[in-house]
């Protein structure tokens, strides 16, 4: 096991995936760096040792800790006296499970990109592996890291909106409006490939974010859904648009729309929640604002670290209101929350109060959501029970 | 029959409903006045002759043309030498059919508020009555009168967005978030009463507007829908929220949300349409703007009578860009379009090119939409074929 | 004198100017019609009897009340038993004074477009004429008619913002970014012509609106100003951009910007006022909103007839919140306020409480403002005392 | 001298100021970390060795490189084999000059917060010191680091707006609306204290940012200004509001407003520039957007890394459009640009093409701007020549 006796300030981090040409690996690295809680020391950045070493050199990682294989990396790092304590898994979806398993079984904390896995069966196995491990499992549903999202969640939990009636959530993009995967674009390639992405296209890539965010903020539990998925672009193998109706166990209702073929939308993740006493409206592209709409009063524009900021938002906020924080800071908040939990774990302490991040249950729920949507749609848009998927 | 030989500039108008305390009657009167194409000369403003005469006096209508009964009014006005040529029907929904019938059979043009009727059976009968009459039938789906909506429709018809894939439409309000009908508020009273409104609550009152607007702009034909309706407020008899998935005959898909329990929303009717080559986004509360989002280019903010205004928008626009026109001007456009058609009809001419307003088919479609939504929802959110309702 | 014994509902109105090709005349007519308080019965619409009669026919005005000359019109209408009670003067600026004088001296109320006159000397003479007349004088600084502007004024007057410190006002357009006057465009022609417009270009045409609005809402009195005016377009005779610093007698300070050469601005009149306890922000192109920014609290978005609407806004508002009213309704409010005052005058009653419209003093102040700006600018941007201009 | 023979990836950085309770020091550290181009190795974080060591411990800086004095730090670090190559100076303004001087004369690059100094005389001396030094001088006018600001600058330089006519710039805050300095708040304390801030309050703290940004983007050279400054809050020693008119040497005109007493404004830095052929509008609180308003065409909303992104914006942008970058990333861009220049300097190469950051001239210009404003205002708002200040 890793020697943690000297309690360094920073957490020793490794990475699986994230070599040259990858997108999300770089995001994870910046996120890990912003609050200076991690030190990147090892990586299986690519599928060959040579490519992995080249990326390591770019990143200031020692050559002898650049691996061509995540299994080898897990094995060796676990044996090193100051091997990594945590690993970020940033590969295409189908590798999340086999990679995570290797680290979990060696007690190395896993910070994994979403969706959890490419199949529901893998998700269930990974859940078991995580539960069996003493290590932490962190899923980077990064939008939950935004301060105004934290504040929204806190306001709802405290009853400020009253009983929740409605959840309207959407995540619209336009980058797959044409057949980009045929051009050889790498991101489009794997994200539209069932073998690497899984059953869901837009549902898996962004629908899971929308679903997770709605669940995180509202605290509601999905009971049933009805989905109508499409692949509008000719030749596309996975859905590029999803229309979903949701029924929550509390009686609340919801709509979810995810699309990668809506021109003019870059990353238009929007969440609106309405209760008996008021509503909240938030948009990812303008994340420092949160509309609060108390029934019978004018709308109030809450701002990050602004006049009505709450504890939950302030603790994941760095700079004064009016100085926008963005996507990378929100992502960093997941990393820094995880760091708090890892440090507590090092010291045998419980997770500090207020520390929140998505975990393995959220991961399973996300894959269950995609699978239920695909099933419902295949059955002509029939209603399906979410509990049949989100179990095990 | 009315004597039209002297061809006056203005159309002789009567009104059924719209007495003191009514809301929409006043809107119709302003709409009729803005472009000076109508003269209000008669009315059955209320259900008793006394009240009707009181309203007539308020409105400058001669006492001998204030009626306590629409049937009497229709009969007598038809016999007058300069009786009314057109009648505006602005009563609660259940009276639209019986009132309209009386005027249509006497060749008096009908300008009727929406939804067309309170039942599908009445809607079908009214459609027959309108077809049998030589008179025109105009349905005040007033949002179709907004200049930017006209421009949107023209852009789609001309192929500027390419083949349409998606229609996202919503109409959210908050005024019925609590049990207002129990307080005796008149508008809430009839709009939540099945006997006067019909089967649909929010679906009938505002869902029909959303559906009509989406159809008007997109030109798409609804094939199937699946609806999940709720009455969130305890004791409410009709739906106050509707979630609807739509499949169009072209293969396009859509979502429609209507709600009267979404705090912070006054009259938030929003339409977004996406095609292969671009998208359009419009919001009723900011009606002088239309976002055009050509794929692969920056978003363009089109304005009423602005730099990229088209013929269809310009012809229903009065003042320069940057000087906002609003709801009343949009409503007036329906009246003024109708006036063009009525004048042409007087003269035995065909309807002038470019003159557009919602008619009896739109009315039947709207009632069919509500009925199909209610049916679908009762059947657990099953998909239903729209053609089974929208016929006859 | 006019016979008012029968107290008709509507006010008998005449018009000077506003023939074919004019812009603002049509606006005045719609404004007069919206609330049905006026009846247009006479006009000197153009400078020849033939053209005037042609316009009269368009407008449904009897041929024998179409005049080629405002003096003739004033004389004859004053003698008619049911001659006009009020006249709208909608000519280029240099004719305001001579036309208004003819009606005022015959006791006919004057509703006059702004700026009051083309010279300060005319403004002073007109002020004397108005004071000497028993008739009312109404200046159509129409932006003061917007409901949210009324609410803003009321909030400031009631002390809700505390002592006012800052006034930031601007009115930006782009329609004169090129030398449009050389193309023969009629509006550009007279508005850039010193002989017809007066000393000020953008300052006179829109700067006066900005200044009037700031004064109306803030209640502050201008003490000194410093102006830097430019004619950016080659060959232009009047200013097309003005930068003005203002010092108010209370110690508050302000900035005013008017421009007709700012691309992308249609009619971007914006007002921001900040006091010790809060601020207000309003934009003419989105007139149904008013931002209220109480110090130390989140911003509140007030809406017309919305949750926090006040009496002053509600009384000049027609339809529910979320159904936008626009420029024409704001303009109509000036007409309808004037109608209240005229009816009271008919009956020998004092002006009803709450009835507000810009009058002759505002007109003189506007022309004084333009003259002071031009003087300051000519003197190299020196500070000038406003009281030296705004007197007499 | 420092040994650079081994060419490490990261630049060895020290810091003066930025101890516990400071605000801007933490911002500099995150900015330095985001792109992993710096390593913080030494610091005189506070004015006593004990406090400095405490901060060093927080920051992972070795105790033997925590200094109580910047002069001692400069001396010792210059002698170390791997002493710092660059120093960030993040103290109150009056210490910028004496601290920077110590490092510059030892060839250590200086990254200095703004404004350059607290007096014009210091600014001139520092300019000489920087010119005499072989080291680089970087001023963190961080707003110039925003990608859309880079794109705006590039568009103007390339002539896309034509000849520039107007610059409207403002920076409004509200945090000093009351007498916060009397409460002992540390930031308010030094920023309103002439001894530590210099002559300017809002002008120095934020007016310099506005002026620098306008100059950076427009490329215009200020010729004359006229300023009216106020201290609205009783007892305040420095200005808390500034109104400034500007004349540029090209004939363009401008307005600048800075305020710390405008309720509802957090960090509302806004820039609008209009030329003969179009305009640009940008707001710091929504920095990923840039409005482009080509004359005679609809407004275009440009986004960071979006459809119309240019080279200048793309090179300082990390993640896809629609994923907002914020203040910290903009600040990081200054650091990373500086890193490019420092690495080139290490290698004896010229500064790479496209690398841009504010330098010593911008610093002098900023202090000259403040001094000219204060002078103008003291002289009753007289026009003063900028060249009389911005020299030496």
TrEMBL record, chains A, B, C, D:
<dbReference type="Pfam" id="PF22725">
    <property type="entry name" value="GFO_IDH_MocA_C3"/>
</dbReference>
<feature type="domain" description="Gfo/Idh/MocA-like oxidoreductase N-terminal">
    <location>
        <begin position="11"/>
        <end position="138"/>
    </location>
</feature>
<dbReference type="GO" id="GO:0000166">
    <property type="term" value="F:nucleotide binding"/>
</dbReference>
<dbReference type="Pfam" id="PF01408">
    <property type="entry name" value="GFO_IDH_MocA"/>
</dbReference>
<protein>
    <submittedName>
        <fullName>Predicted dehydrogenase</fullName>
    </submittedName>
</protein>
<dbReference type="InterPro" id="IPR036291">
    <property type="entry name" value="NAD(P)-bd_dom_sf"/>
</dbReference>
<feature type="domain" description="GFO/IDH/MocA-like oxidoreductase">
    <location>
        <begin position="149"/>
        <end position="281"/>
    </location>
</feature>
<dbReference type="InterPro" id="IPR051317">
    <property type="entry name" value="Gfo/Idh/MocA_oxidoreduct"/>
</dbReference>
<dbReference type="InterPro" id="IPR055170">
    <property type="entry name" value="GFO_IDH_MocA-like_dom"/>
</dbReference>
<dbReference type="InterPro" id="IPR000683">
    <property type="entry name" value="Gfo/Idh/MocA-like_OxRdtase_N"/>
</dbReference>
